[in-house]
Design goal:
This protein is of the alpha/beta class. Among the domains are: about 260 residues, ABC transporter type 1, transmembrane domain (ABC transporter transmembrane region fold), CATH 1.20.1560; about 70 residues, Rossmann fold (3-Layer(aba) Sandwich), CATH 3.40.50. About 65% of the residues lie in helices and about 10% in strands. The chain has 22 helices and twelve strands. α18 links the parallel β9 and β10. α2 packs parallel to α5 and α5 runs antiparallel to α11. The chain is elongated.
């Protein structure tokens, strides 16, 4: 929570002035019943009818001042709360982008989205309405009681005695509602996740006739969220009826006691009328105070979730260089690397290999065998549990993030295409000249289909590339990776949608680039058969390493894949 206070601190004087303006409006409102009582007490006296005009004019002036100051304060509170929330939301978005993959795994993407949207909205709501009600409601409450005490102290004490009961009710409700609102936000994360998965996989869901199953899955998380929200609402809903009941009982007592005091001549009927007006004012103020506590409960739960992300420590910070890089060191080297995503069972075990600059590494293996984990560790998306990963003889943990990232051009398995033009998607917000973009498109075998599009490089691309075929998407993504002229190119199953002729032409173009060290993760042997080193993975371990010809003789798993995809071993080698 201390982190969020830092966002409010620069606006503290502005907020204080807003509350001062709101205070003026509340004080002006307090005098309206007072002048009404004076009219009833003095204006009805023969010969003093002019008092009606005087006090009536004072009432109108108070009402006008109240209106003007309240509007001004409301606009000011909206501005300050909007600016504070905008800064919080921006920093939260920036923080989410700097989290390591492990931190994001723990947080989960749906939770990140709901913290960035609904949680920041609730914080904004409290900041805005809290400034409006936070000063007005207490001033009307305390001021109304004070005005009543000045008119008739004994009569006012009847209502004052009931206020501690209401305060205790508010405290109990607030204490019980905060855990419920925290739980509600967690269940909202679950619902966002289900909706996100459903929208992303809508084609598969329809193709497999799983619409009813998805409907039931959504119904479960929706019912859980609804149940928690209903329970939280039921707890907070007790507040208004209790406050109204207690204050109405107090009002009844005031009327009864007041009637006896009027008959006894110790107070006037005008005071009773003013008391009724102040009672309505106090009742609304009390309900306003309870709304503040309810909003505070919801905002506190959301603020804690936002602060949790903002206060996360930076992960994967660069280490100090342990020694000078060796001049003759391999371009890429894995030395006895082991890694686990969860800490339960290794996803990669004792991996060692080395590549010289310009060489090509091919990686084969079943789904979940550890192929993509190699890339994750090389790019330092995750840190190794043991061993080391080195580029040019220097541990990747010693590189600055931007320096390390600049070395790579990468196409991931589940990469994305944004709405825009083909040129925009290849450039991808980088300072890359058009010549480099066009060369990348040629090498990626994308130039032909781009030329066929209306507008060529400036042809429109829809969101997620829905107006492109699978092969066109992959070639566009490969062009994006090549456009930055990387020294290490990673293609993670990036040619699965390409026909064999296009795949062969792509590999030929990559070899022509010469100095680029390439890592090919593939399912097809034809994509990796010409690699300088091929690794065959199974359950996080290398079960075969060597060139194509060597693996056909030494690795049964590789030979089986070759025969199933390309015929006999001799045909595969042709």
């Amino acid at each position: 929570m201390g982190k969020l206070r830092a966002y409010i601190r620069p606006y503290i004087l502005y907020i204080a002035f807003t509350m001062l303006v709101k205070l003026g409006g509340a004080v002006a409102e307090l005098f309206v019943p007072y002048f009404m009582e004076r009219i009833l007490r003095e204006g009805v006296v023969p010969g003093q009818q002019n008092r009606i005009l005087i006090y009536g004019g004072a009432m109108l002036l108070c009402a006008a001042v109240c209106l003007a100051l309240n509007i001004t304060a409301n606009r000011m509170s909206a501005q300050s709360s909007g600016k504070i929330t905008r800064k919080i939301r921006f920093d939260l978005f920036e923080k989410l982008n700097t989290l390591s993959a492990r931190q994001m795994d723990e947080l989960t993407l749906p939770s990140a989205e709901s913290r960035l949207t609904s949680d920041t909205y609730r914080v904004n709501e409290f900041l805005a309405r809290g400034q409006r009600l936070g000063i007005r409601a207490p001033i009307l409450l305390v001021g109304g009681v004070f005005m009543m005490l000045t008119m008739d102290a004994k009569l006012a004490l009847v209502l004052v005695a009931l206020l501690p009961i209401i305060a205790l009710t508010v405290w109990i409700i607030t204490k019980k509602s905060i855990p419920l609102y925290t739980k509600e936000q967690g269940e909202l994360d679950d619902m966002v996740r289900v909706v996100q998965e459903n929208v992303t996989g809508v084609r598969v869901i329809k193709a497999l006739s799983k619409t009813d199953y998805e409907r039931e899955r959504f119904a479960r998380v929706n019912e859980a969220l609804c149940a928690t929200d209903t329970k939280a609402g039921a707890v907070t809903a007790i507040n208004n009826p209790v406050a109204s009941l207690v204050l109405n009982l107090g009002l009844t007592a005031v009327v009864v006691v007041g009637a006896y005091r009027v008959l006894g001549g110790t107070t006037g009927a005008s005071v009773i009328v003013a008391f009724l007006q102040y009672f309505i004012m106090i009742l609304n103020a009390m309900l306003g105070v309870t709304r503040i506590f309810i909003m505070a409960s919801r905002a506190q739960a959301s603020a804690l979730r936002v602060a949790h992300v903002l206060e996360l420590k930076k992960d994967l910070e660069p280490r100090e260089a342990s020694n000078e890089p060796e001049p003759e060191a391999p371009h890429i080297a894995f030395s006895d690397v082991s890694f686990s995503y969860t800490g339960i069972g290794e996803n990669l075990s004792h991996l060692s290999f080395a590549l010289k600059r310009g060489q090509t590494l091919g990686i084969l293996g079943a789904t979940g065998s550890g192929k993509s984990t190699v890339v994750n560790l090389l790019m330092r998306i995750y840190d190794v549990d043991s061993g080391s990963v080195r580029i040019d003889g220097r541990d990747v943990r010693e590189y600055e993030k931007n320096t390390l990232s600049a070395k790579f051009g990468v196409v991931f398995q589940n990469d994305f295409i944004h709405e825009g033009t083909i040129r925009d998607n290849i450039r991808f917000f980088r300072d890359i000249p058009d010549e480099a973009i066009e060369r990348a498109a040629v090498d990626a075998q994308a130039a032909e289909f781009i030329a066929e599009k209306d507008g060529g490089m400036d042809a429109a691309v829809s969101i997620r590339g829905n107006n492109l075929s699978g092969g066109q998407k992959q070639r566009l993504l490969i062009a994006r990776a090549l456009a930055g002229d990387p020294e290490i190119l990673i293609l993670d199953d990036a040619s699965s949608a390409l026909d064999y002729r296009t795949d062969a032409a792509l590999r030929k173009a990559l070899r022509a680039r010469g100095a680029v060290t390439t890592i090919l993760i593939a399912q097809r042997i034809s994509s990796v058969r010409h690699a300088d080193l091929i690794l065959v993975f199974a359950d996080g371990r290398v079960i075969g390493a060597g060139k194509h010809d060597e693996l056909l003789e030494t690795c049964a798993e590789y030979r089986l894949i070759a025969e199933s995809q390309m015929g006999t071993g001799e045909e595969a080698d042709a």
